[in-house]
Amino acid sequence: MARPRKFEEERAVEAAMRAFWADGYEATSTQALCEATGLGRSSIYNTFRSKHDLFKKALTRYMDVKTANIIEVLADGSRPVRERLRTVLGWAAEPGADDPAGCLVVNAMVELAPRDAVTAERLGKDQARRLDALVAAIEEGVRAGEIEPGRDARALAHYVISTVSGMRVAARGGADRRTLTSIADTAMQAI
Amino acid sequence: MARPRKFEEERAVEAAMRAFWADGYEATSTQALCEATGLGRSSIYNTFRSKHDLFKKALTRYMDVKTANIIEVLADGSRPVRERLRTVLGWAAEPGADDPAGCLVVNAMVELAPRDAVTAERLGKDQARRLDALVAAIEEGVRAGEIEPGRDARALAHYVISTVSGMRVAARGGADRRTLTSIADTAMQAI
DNA sequence: CCTATTTTGGACTGATCAATACAATAGGAG
DNA sequence: CTCCTATTGTATTGATCAGTCCAAAATAGG
Q1: Is the pLDDT of residue A173 over 90?
Q2: Which of A26, A109, A156 has its CB closest to that of B172?
Q3: Do B120 and A173 touch (CB under 8 A)?
Q4: Given an 8 Å threshold on Cβ–Cβ distance, is B165 in contact with A166?
Q5: Nucleotide at minimal C1' distance from the B51 CA
Q6: Is the N or C terminus of chain B more exposed, i.e. has fewer CB atoms within 10 Å?
Q7: What pLDDT is attached to residue A95?
Q8: Does residue B97 lie within any of the structural domains?
């Protein structure tokens, strides 16, 4: 056919994702994306149409991975529901070894949601997925007698998402693991 | 002496503050700041040395006002402590009529804290003030028997701050008042 | 009125932005 | 080997960025 690609698209998206995650959308220049991915400008613009499109791919990748993890642990019928919820909160307290501080979804919601309708909609769709998984788990917890009957599962689910967001903001501000863990522990008492 | 100023510095800082609050630091151009404040470039650079300095003033103003409110309500000995805490959470659920969505402190922590040490330090100082006010109120609540004895006041204070941050992120993402109120209500159950 | 001094408007600066143009390159298909 | 085509590196685009310059304007003090 023709000259083959020298790079893997997935690796490039992963690298771009981490750059956006660390510095935010506006503060990440296309030059920085070239350096982060190791690609030239042509390869980036040839593969992804624009900085914004690359960001969309990066955000999508982030959401797919993280949300899949959440859905998986929340659906794990072999563990008590409260333990599953505590695991989700725990992830927000113990960040990956060399991950940037905070959470790309929270960062994007703060920086872009109010002025980028496309991104806002994608964030909304992702949040709906996490919300559904939480509601299902919480309702299971109610049936199992782990969670007080009569509690509004949807309200609790929103509460869990909000708590994780708050912890991500705190982490972004430099909060240490102990502080984050104490927040997670406290938050569990409302459930 | 000389030609007098035609504008009030406070009004300009207020206008700039709202611009940064709505769009973020990077996405707010100096041109946009001119339009928001109604000043010319010369006046802005003559009065505030740079975009970054103007942002610092705007952020300081925001923190001073908001934190003063929080400290005031938390120190109001005429009301039950839990009511005072609920009021603070309530502010995060019912935003000002024509305020931008979310919270400038949360936005700055997300966008700037990891890469702007000066801003990070100022945010840290402000958070310490809010933390102290919360700790004092919570300890008062414990003494008054409103809050279970033996609970870690500092951990609870961090939890309240994190909850407010989470709600601000949700608001930034477009959450409605009902959802935010339900989060505040749920959060109170951990206290 | 006149001068000293500050503010103001608007043109301008070099740097950097996202994005494009294009020729050189590389490799599979024939 | 040769051609076709996609990829790549580099130079370049026009726009916009934050910030500066300077002359005109304005006013309080003398």
Answers
A1: yes
A2: A109
A3: yes
A4: yes
A5: D18
A6: N
A7: 87
A8: yes
Q: Which helix (H) or strand (E) holds A153?
A: helix A153-172
Pair A180, A92: CB distance under 8 Å? yes
Q: What angle do CA B42, B44, B50 make, to 5 degrees?
A: 105
Strand C closer than 7 A to residue B47 Cβ = yes
Among candidates A22, A166, A182 on the partner chain, residue whose Cβ is nearest the Cβ of B155: A182
Q: Which two tokens stand for residue A110?
A: 């703060």
As a whole number, mean pLDDT of residues A130-147 equals 97
Rg (CA), chain A: 19
Inside any domain, residue A156: yes
pLDDT in tens, B84-98: 999 999 999 998 889
Closest chain B residue to the Cα of A101, Cα to Cα: B114
- H/E segment holding residue B177: helix B177-188
B4: Cα within 13 Å, side-chain hemisphere: 3
- pLDDT, tens digit, 9 for 90 and up, residues B159-180: 999 999 999 999 999 999 999 9
Does a structural domain hold residue A162?
yes
**Among chain B residues 74 through 113, which have CB within 7 angstroms of nucleic chain C?**
none
In a domain, A142, yes or no: yes
pLDDT in tens, B10-63: 999 999 999 999 999 999 999 999 999 999 999 999 999 999 999 999 999 999
pTM over cut 0.85: yes
